[in-house]
Amino acid sequence: TYYGLVGRGHHAFSDAARWWLAQQKVKQLFKQAHCDGAQLLLEYGLVGTLAVVSYLAWAFWAHGAWGDPLTAAVVVGLVASLGQFPLHLPQTGIPWLVLVAFLVSRA
Predict the structure, then answer these.
(1) Measuring CA to CA, which residue among 86, 82, 88 is closest to residue 37?
(2) SS3 content of the chain, % helix, strand, coil (to 5)
């Protein structure tokens, strides 16, 4: 199927997790993947994931933001999202998006 390329759509992980539970492939139901990168790939596919990665790469390199403390804060958010889902929680996701927007707007 083409799901690997374009993904299954927004909020598809939760639906897939319910199916996995019904098929007894997992023992617990989780609404989030606990890895933002994996969830992004499942929901938006390779195209959506590459779009997000391209935007972040452009934000860092085009604006010469390496060495900036704000860049460090954004990178910490990305690293934290490898084992958690902080970008899905408003108390951490919104400040992270504000940091990215501020970083891009400063150039």
Answers:
(1) 82
(2) 65, 0, 35
Query: In this structure, is the dihedral angle defined by the CA atoms of residues 88, 16, 40 and 28, taken in order, positive or negative?
Result: positive
Query: What sign does the dihedral 12-4-25-38 (CA atoms) show?
Result: negative
Contacts 24+ apart (CB under 8 A), 70-79: 70/99, 70/102, 70/103, 71/103, 73/99, 74/99, 74/100, 74/103
List, for residues 53-107, the tens digit of each pLDDT value.
898 888 777 766 677 788 888 888 888 888 888 888 899 889 988 988 887 787 6
State the Cα–Cα distance between residues 38 and 31, nearest whole angstrom.
Answer: 13
